[in-house]
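TL;DR need structure tokens for one chain.
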Amino acid sequence: MRAISVCRLAIKTSLLLVALASCAVLAYGQRPPGPRADEETFRFRFVGPRAGNRVASIAGVPGDPSTYYAGAASGGVWKTTDGGNRWEPIFDKEPAAAIGAIAVAPSDPSVIWVGTGEAWAIRDSDVMGNGVYVSTDSGKSWTWAGLEDTGRIGRIVVHPRNPDVAFVCALGRATGPQQERGVYRTTDRGQHWERVLFADANTGCSGLAMDPHNPRILLAGMWQVEMHTYGEMSGGPGSAAYTSKDGGTKWAKLEGHGLPKPPLGKIDVAIAPTNSDRYFALIQTKDQGALWRSDNAGDAWQAVNYQRQLIGRAGYYIRIAVSTGNDNEVYVANSSFLESLDGGETFKEVPWGGDNHDIWIDPQNPDRFVITDDGGLNITTVHGRGFHRIQLPIGQMYHVAVDNQVPYYVYTNMQDGPNMRGPSIAPPLEYGRVVDTGWERRMGGCESGFTLPDPTDPNVVWASCYGNEVTRWEAKIKRARSVSPWVHSLDSPPSDLKYRCHWTPPLAIDPFDHSTVYYGCQVIFKTSNAGQSWSVISPDLSTQDPKYLGSSGGIVGDNLGQFYGEVVFAIAPSEVEQGLIWAGTNDGLIWYTKDGGRNWTNVTKNIKDLPPWGTVTRIEPSHFDPGAAYLSIDYHLMDNRDPYIFKTTDFGKTWTKISEGLPKHQLSYVRTIAEDPNQKGLLFAGTGNGLFYSLDDGAHWTVFAVGLPHAPVTWDVVQKQFHDLVVSTYGRGIYILDDITPLEQMAKKTTDEPVHLFAPRDTFRLFPNGGAVITYSLKAAAKAPPKIEILDASGAIIRKLDAPGRAGMNRVEWNFLYEPPKLVALRTTPPENPHIWEERRFRSSDARQVLHWGIREAEVGPMALPGKYTVRLTVDGQSLTEPLAIVKDPNVHASDDGLAAAFKLQLRIRDDITKA
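>> reply
TL;DR here they are.
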């Protein structure tokens, strides 16, 4: 046993905060003076998809069918208080988004325990956490409670009568040996922790149960597991079941007496709530069985079931629960959901979900339970005879791309879902609805990989997928055609494959020739005839070390490509120099070719002190200089979570590390790096829990702190025409930061004036969901409310806007409408309509507007025509102006003369209403 004081952890955390503060000083204090862009002004907006991904953990309140807490795999904690009709995220202010365990204290439902880090071992993109959090007000606020290095927490059990006593089942990071894993106990609500069960540095906790009638009795499953870029190894001598009969102080290893012999894999355990003598152990074995039961409190065991279906893909599943009303009714969550009514001796598959992960059963009502799965959760109050299906906006998106339409569309791949595209601006008639509007799904491809529109024709979409799958989709026929360069057999060790291709295979379209497409395995393929044929244009670009090409899975093989090592992971053709292509592998090599693939140069050794086996997550060739490129490398599967971003300006002869200004913590590894195509040196970096920008080519970094949840940022891209930053997250879908032209202008020229008006972008005349964004900065708060006026080409004021005057960045949006008419207002009661005087909206006024509900459009002014306008900002007597161009929507088929005639009519109607 080892005692851990949270005071000591707090000191460590304080040091971390000091380090972060130092980074903040580096990022903020040393950069040129000027306004910061991480304030309330720059807020990301969620664009979809609204139907999301995996819910890893679930908890309800005993006896309360209205309240549930759902833990998303990498999207935070969500809560409902109306039985699942409405949900809200309640954990977004915390730095960790992966939720492995949730527990409601049985004796005080206002005390909620959360363990971060998803305790699965299934793919390279799954996310770790930073310890335990506790809420004492039903999730309104949270307190970090330590165990920051435990990585992944799969279970929390709380004492049935004391909410301050809890046990944590910590798997550990699972990316290398460590001490911070096993079972931990606190008796003071997380102020101090004691590690009470520890097997070895390679083994963590995968299952934990407490007897609700006698909380001194605990049962634990320990799992030896290790994940690296090149493999997942489940099982070994460390895996075993343990029991404690004194409240967790002493533990006895359970072996023999009918239990299977080592090596074992993942283990989950359960104690029947209605029978304290009945224990269950769901154990991953190679061929010895699946489910063991004890009917005498663990003294003797028997294998009661050998169905492989119960333990399939153990790294992703293995969860068991026993009904709170019947000790013979047993549930197993796996790729299917299985139910036994005879104590586990036989199971039948029931249609209660697919790819299932967690189960919560009301201790007071066994008819009410919740099952979570890859697409959400199911709530039943009638013992499975009917379910309330819940899907949350927690999409795990691999990448994002944009096209050149007006408005543009975003393209993405969602874990456990199809690939898809959706509008950057929701269609007007369906704006505000809770469903995804305008989204199109299943355009070839699959859940993983890339989805890329043809840059000259968005009706043609390319996609990559696991299994060496490449597709080409055409909108005209709504069909995708497989154009894969090679047949790939799943469930094969990579050493057996001619071409080994990752779960997330890279795909790129040549900027100089849209008919040329590149695809990566350990070599790079090229097609120039719509996929009719492919040629190999590179040698094997990996390290080609055979010892890293073995079968993955451990005691039971699992080879679906997630842990294929020594593959190309990034392909990046230059848009500045034709024939220049960069490539990076997931075993840490960086290459380029200047002649379209005939000759390749390895520049890896030119990066000083680069650790081995980094995954090159992205290479971003400069949009301005052919010899310049940016590189992000992720080492988190090699037990290194530091950020790595490099830059070269001489085709890789020399490299500069530009990530020193980023914070270092459990989730600081870098997933993506992008350069703004409109402004040289304006960079955006996505990490395991945030998004950062640099105005000075990586010398200093600033975090975007508002509007973007702390989910992993997997990809980012700037839509060049709209100047929008589009971001994919692995846990919360797609977000857009509209109009980053102020950042582009700040990167070009530092401003530190008392008042600064940024030049607005050219804005398409979209309505009703469009508008011209006006951004300005104030060094100090304005003494009087600022004024913004819109002037037409003649200099006439056509619209006045209210403007905030706070210090820092400020934004106002003009919706293209002229000043509205002055509506008629009555000062006396209308004799035929006296009730209008009593309407609540008029009670504080001495006049009542007359409005006919059928002509509400009379309240607004006419819409400005395409053309040139001027924005004038006045702050405390100082006036600044900038030109503004409104561009005609290319989807509008009316002629310019027709638009002008309609405008004149609208203007006349407005003036007539005012005169009336």
